[in-house]
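Input sequence (214 aa), recorded before submission:
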Amino acid sequence: MVKDLVCGMEIDPATAAATRQIDDETFYFCSQQCADTFDADPHAYMHGGKGHDEEPAPAMTHSATTGYDPNLTGPVTATLPIVNLDCATCVFTVETALNALDGVQEANVNFATAKAHVVYDADRLSLADVNQTIKKAGYTVGGATAELTIKGLRCASCVTFIEEALLATPGVTRAVVNIVIQKATIDYLPEMATVAALQKAIESVGYEVSEKPE
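Predicted structure, token format:
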């Protein structure tokens, strides 16, 4: 067995997802993402090795498209259907909760359409935070759920990379990756995201969806 210098996982060299040869030494990695992280600063990992346990990977920036874009600035607008919005008091409750959320610039709830229109700062919170705030207020955000099987899930770092990529995808309100069953379960708003976009988000951090969306 050998150790992945990035995440610290013990792996069999024969089943390593990626390798790197430097001078006469071979390094083995549990995933392509760990190999890419190593490539960014090999010296740091080879000599006194920083890893995910000691120093987290740099925070990724929310994108208005799929994946990450470090140059993206400006607010994000989302429209969320509220399932159990049935009175004027409900409207007031949801609006108050959303407008009190740090990072929300504006929130309006339309009783006739049963939808909340939220403008928020993606550098300070995510759509998942907005969704959670609505749930805490006692209401449910409508949407769809997708379950995708992912190849090559080997460690907790893999889970973190994928969940961050999915949660940064516009329209995703919740993303949970289960390493045991090798699946990601994603709640999303169909008017803002597609299953194909979710797949691209996973692929953007170096993993492969084994069941392709139609």
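Checked by second reader. DSSP finds six helices and eleven strands in the chain.
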